[in-house]
Amino acid sequence: MRWRDLEERSDPSFFQSWGWLGTWLSLLPADSETHIFEARLAAQPVCLAILVKKRRRFYVAETGNPELDALTIEYNGLLIDRRLVHLLTEVFLPKLLSLLPSGTELVVSGVPESYRVARLPKGFALQIADAKTSYRMEFVGSRDPIGSISKSTQYKLRRARRRYAALGAVVLRVARDTAEAHLFLEELVRLHQRYWRARGMPGAFANPSFSRFHHRLIDRCFRADEIRLTQLVAGTRAIGYLYNFRYRRRVYAYQSGFDYECIPGERPGLLSHWEAMCCSREDGTSTYDFLAGSNQMKECLSNRTEPLFWLIFRRKTLSHAVEAAFSRGKQAVGRALAWTPQLRSSRRRA
């Protein structure tokens, strides 16, 4: 199988693995228009990408359907033989763009900065639709990186463990088989949804496509040790669940559910990730990746950051120039409207 063969000769993320992509493909609607980009060297594939076309756009490992793309793929991009990865910006991406039919665009989400600085074929322009910071803890060197977190964070962790220990022994349990993994995920969903619905939000698992995908992903990838579901218990009370991916000595912290009602005001998320990080390091993990998006917990438990970009590659045309100008105009109006209430408020106070 071409993808798995190249995967072995590459250094992909879990989101570029056949475990993730094969599951995604198996659940695409029957009418999806899928395409394969392939580059060969001496009859051997050295670059592959799966694209879905929707209207005038080609999406790399996405569909253009917000409901289906709620999986929020990150560390996305072309799968490239590790010996040739330096050719991404000068050869492979420019070639893919040059093959796009007239009037179409390429959308690629959650990619590293190398895609942003790629050499574009003549007549192409790049639009940055979004940019986010990815946080991670790298376990490198003789010094224990976990021990290098701030004293304030260490205090919060000690306090959380002490308060939860009043309920009984604090233990991190790892799902032992596929059945238990599904059970842990169901409990995670219950806590996750309770938290977000209490705040007037639907929660990630309100989307049936989202839940269906992840249960199938567990079926396909758990036995390969690429799925890790954990339960943190204090005595007999489960206080937190984590749904992580484990791939090539890297753990990706993907979803979570915590019992914030057990001890109001305490930090079950901070403690759950701390325990999972310690467990991962003992298992030989080199990196614990919190993925994109900023919050205080990620900042407290990380020692590295990386920007990720959501990009649109398009041909320079008059219609696109008008569209870009209109978009800039809307943003300017939005900024003005956002500022106006502040000015009015100030006048009222005067």
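Next protein, fold it too.
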Amino acid sequence: MDSRTHWESIYSTKNPAQVSWFEAEPIRSFGWVAAYLQDKTQGVVDIGAGASLLSQRLVEAGYSNVSALDLSHAALQVASMRYLASEAGTKSPECIQWLVSDLLSWKPTQQYAVWHDRAVLHFLDNAMDQAAYVARLTAALKPGGHAIISVFATDGPTHCSGIQVQQYDPLMLDNLLGKSFNRIEAIKWQHRTPNGTEQNFQTVIYQRTN
């Protein structure tokens, strides 16, 4: 099964609250974006947005240039329909751009001030795909912008959604991104899945230097 079919199947057959990565509220992600993006007119892209509330919460907080990218049309349909039914979506439907695309072949049409990825990179377990990820990141993030990247930690899960993942520590991420990205902050944290399992995550925040 190819990646698009895999994720379409998940989001077409499961309630968003049933998947292991579900968050009732994207509290951590929202806080990180808000901390590194004070100018709310600047662009922010949520990579692997799925059915997350993050894009909606950003618009509700006054951000006006938000993009949500995911491989799954079904996932973004859940998020977009929920947003358009909300007060913010009724008033400002244009504030979120819904991008159904494979990240590895995506051609961004603007440069963003913040790149947010809660759990995409760790699914890329070969050097070619990882290099393509860094190329997309470099194309999409403006110099001086910030990348917020969350992955499974070295003591986190080895598989997710039936797929083997790549675990990371901050140094491994430093080496992958290279000298164009300066590490600003590294945070280790735990996510509790809907069934109560604890998953160890590593978030690293970078600033693009050139």
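About the second fold: The first helix runs from residue 3 to 13.
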